[in-house]
Amino acid sequence: MPAFKYEGFTKSGKAVKGIKDALSRQQALIQLTGEGVLISSIEPAAAKTKGVLGNIFKSRKNLADLYFQLALLLRSGIPLVEAINIIVRSSKNATEKETLMDIASKVSEGMRFSDALDKYSEYFEPMYVNLVKASERMGRLSDVLMDIAEYEETKSQNADKLVSAMIYPAVVLIMGLGVLGFLMAVIVPKMQGIFSSVKQELPASTKVLLAAADFSKEYGGFMILFLVFLIFAFQYTYRNNHKFRMRVDKQLFGFNLIAQSAVARFAYILAFQLKEGLPLTDSLFFATKTVGNKYMQSILEETRSEVLSGVKFSTAIKNAGVFPELFPAAASIGESSGTLPELLARVHLFYTKRIDKFISGALSAVSPLFIVIVGALVAFVVISIMLPLLNMSNLVE
């Protein structure tokens, strides 16, 4: 839907500005006038606004900073609208300023903060909007915003940690493949001409190398294009064919590491929402949406339906038949003792530690493995080139 940037005044004379979604400029004027805004200027917002906003607010670090600053200012006793305006003044991005100014304007006119955020649901996750809505009812907005900031920061740190751990193996692999590619693309073709001019039997390894070089030269481009096609075809089918994605995700869920990772993520998000005061059924809804595996999502949707029909959460989880025994056991104890969020958080911590230990061990083993494999391939190429040269020198002697 088109967006229009406006400036004007309320009936009390207060200056306001913001962005209004409407099908046309005339409709935007009618809507704003109906809201009691006297328009001084209105023009189409830049077409790139939403794309830029997506980049700003989908950045985990920026989201964490925004929630953290708001929580800090609110805890200092500063009213919400003024807190947002302070962040606006410190922001260096024009589009971010406009968005936050529009949110501040809506809140100052009487709209709830959660409803103002919901106007930008493309950038502020519905789960967070509902947490904010619940916190407004309980009068603990600053606490919830701080928890959201810490949650976003934790996700960002985990992602950074994984990327950092993968840098060294990736560098080793890329450098090794670069050396191998240079030998196959530059050195081997030059040596091929020398070998063909000498009438002598070549070693078996050299024959294999030259055959591989010929195959790469003849079909290498086609093979790369075919591989790229397969990757894009798989991605397209995975995204657009529900049955295909369900089959793939079911197979992936069969891997213990992926299953434990999905369960740990689900437990953490569910515990986080329950701790902040969201009802179990709502928490289940949003936690299910954040699980990337469609097969697990379908199971959790059935679990939520059972809970809505009156079945205990721990019983519904056990009935699913795919969760580790620890999960329904912890859920059962948590329900009976009233400590469900805490026990779910412990389940998350347990599986997270196991996953981290496995990933750390795997990455530690991968780097030497890459070195050995690439080293063996490079050694094979070098030896295959040197053997005929040594034989030639022996013939000359």
Output the keywords.
three-stranded antiparallel β-sheet, 6% strand, 16 helices, mainly alpha, 397 residues, Receptor-associated Protein
List SSEs in N-to-C order. Answer: EEHEHHHHHHHHHHHHHHH
Number of strands: 3
Helix amount, in percent?
Answer: over 70%
Radius of gyration: 30 Å
Distance between the termini: 83 Å
Instruction: Write the CATH homologous superfamily of the domain at 166-397.
Output: Type II secretion system (T2SS), domain F
Q: What CATH architecture of the domain at 166-397 would you give? A: Up-down Bundle
Instruction: Tell me the number of helical segments per DSSP (H or I, 4 or more residues long).
Output: 16
What is the CATH C level class of the domain at 166-397, in words? Mainly Alpha
* Low-confidence residue ranges: 46-56
Mean pLDDT, all residues: 80
What name does the CATH topology of the domain at 166-397 carry? Receptor-associated Protein
Largest sheet descriptor: 3 strands, antiparallel
